[in-house]
User: What shape does this take?
Amino acid sequence: MKIMHIGLDDTDSPRKGCTTYVAALLVEKLRKLGTEFIDYPNLVRLNPNVPWKTRGNGALCLRIRCDESDEKKIKETVTNTVEDHADLEYTGTDPGIVFFKKAKIPREVKIFAKKAVTGIVNLEDALKLLKKFEAEAVGFKKCRGIIGGLAAVGETLQCDYTFEILAYRIPENWGLKRRVDESSIVEMDKATAPYTFNNVDQKTSRVLITPRGPDPILFGIRGETPEIVKEAFEMAKPLETVERWVIFRTNQGTDAHLKLVKQLSQIKPFNPVVAKGTVATNPKIIPRRHVVFSIENESAQVDCAAYEPTGSLRKAAKKLIVGDYVEVHGGVRAPSQNHPLTINLEKIRVMRLAPKIVYHNPVCLKCGKRLKSMGRNKGFRCKKCGSRHLDLRKIEVKVKREIRKGLYITSSRSQRHLTKPFRRYGLEKSHTVFKGLIEDWCFP
Ligand code: ATP
Assistant: This one.
């Protein structure tokens, strides 16, 4: 028996498909061929800030044990399935498949994967690694999917990880409005909290498990263990036929994309970062209600933006003032003609609040009425008794801040797949104690 890791990416387009669905089809086909899955299919979210992603920048890896004599059949099945289900006519869909036949994933491939999650990698480096480790790849068109395919192979999810059960629609329903009993989702959320997450937006009560768009996913439920997502799946009531379902192991909800930068001058476009600095300009509201402020340290000053859909995060950002010390988390947008390099905020940790001082006019020493200023450094005049006070100064008053120290996260409805939500804090896993797959991890 041999171990094979099969990486897949870039099969879908905004108008059709989903690489997780190709993986779900392959689960059925490969099991029929007699292969054994040694892990749940891995759904690896790569850098959410790469400019050429379609949606969530997800890549897939199937890790199997198979008979050496079946290798050819397996490769054919995978290649044909990708070919049949990829939107090959769409410019920008460049599928890639990687067949990696070493049981243990080499360190260099793991490093490549980490870089694909936190930064930008290139096809040339992917091909060099494939050659070095005698892996095989199949690429279509520009072959860019090979990058994601190799990254999915290399991300063995040994630090923090979560699970997602994905249920798929029958092809007749693709593109139609998704039908799920929303009250069953709200109940499921209550019953399984905190071990499932991002089911419902707490503020608007909107159900979040159903994606929008023409892809074949009916819904996805995310959680800490395969058992809990399965239990939650049984509580959810779909109002249309579920064609198939599969439990994936994933880096979703783990903040795996964020990398700490020591100096603001090190921040590069497209790299998600965690950076610390002092608020250097007061937040301002720009068109479409986005909030922008800047932070600085001794090395540079950088703009930060909390977009309108970030909800509670935007509200917190609005309350910052110059002098606050914050840690910002987010993706980096390249500078353009209209704006400088900007961190698109996903989280803000307020670490120190500056005192907020307002200045009041003093009161009249004779009659106690609040004085009127006669102009800058020109003293004050009392409107009631007419007295003048040339040597009085404005009074400093410290006012209560409307924001507290602590962590602020974008509302669930606008969280990225990789963003760790509040619910997961304290539930992180630090290493994989892999107990094997549960019995029912995919449709029979
Ligand atoms: P999905 O819809 O499945 O969530 P996606 O459709 O948004 O994902 P893809 O269609 O897979 O994204 O396209 C992303 C492309 O970018 C892939 O070809 C992948 O190989 C490539 N890619 C992903 N991450 C990186 C990275 N960090 N550096 C360079 N290329 C990357």
The pocket of adenosine-5'-triphosphate is lined by residues 9-10, 12, 18-19, 46-47, 50, 52-58, 94, 116, 120-121, 144-145, 147-148 (CB under 6 Å). The chain has a mean pLDDT of 95. The first strand starts at residue 2 and ends at 9. DSSP finds eight helices and 22 strands in the chain.
